[in-house]
Inverse folding.
């Protein structure tokens, strides 16, 4: 009996490599989302700090240059927060795409593994059946030889 051979083993190996690469891309995308969120949160924290500083001075006289500086800072932080939130959304989209890609490749790998297992089971059954047929043949020959010996002796 010939040995087991799965004709799609090469494809399975390639798909497994693609699955691993997709997992790495997903991890990279998750880190990018975390980094973008951390940046947005830090900018929001800085804006709150600037806001708290201004609130603490309510009712006090503030010179124009200090007020302009505070205004420019909060305006700049606001724009940076909008850009950071856009970056978060972009990173989340990339993460979703990476997850979808990983799921697609994982599904293909699982399908190939299932097909391989089915072919392995079929091959193993054929080997067992061939082995049983050989045993049956040997048993039949022995029985016929024993019967011929008994018939010749009688």
């Amino acid at each position: 009996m010939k040995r087991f051979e799965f004709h799609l083993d090469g494809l399975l190996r390639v798909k497994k490599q693609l699955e691993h690469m997709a997992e790495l891309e997903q991890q990279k995308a998750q880190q990018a989302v975390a980094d973008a969120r951390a940046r947005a949160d830090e900018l929001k924290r800085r804006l709150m700090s600037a806001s708290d500083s201004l609130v603490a001075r309510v009712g006090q006289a503030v010179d124009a240059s200090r007020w302009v500086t505070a205004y420019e800072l909060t305006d700049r932080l606001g724009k940076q927060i909008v850009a950071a939130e856009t970056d978060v959304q972009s990173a989340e989209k990339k993460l979703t795409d990476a997850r979808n890609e990983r799921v697609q490749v994982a599904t293909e790998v699982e399908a190939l593994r299932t097909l391989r297992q089915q072919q392995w089971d079929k091959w193993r059954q054929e080997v067992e059946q061939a082995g049983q047929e050989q045993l049956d043949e040997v048993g039949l020959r022995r029985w016929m030889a024993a019967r011929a010996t008994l018939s010749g002796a009688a």
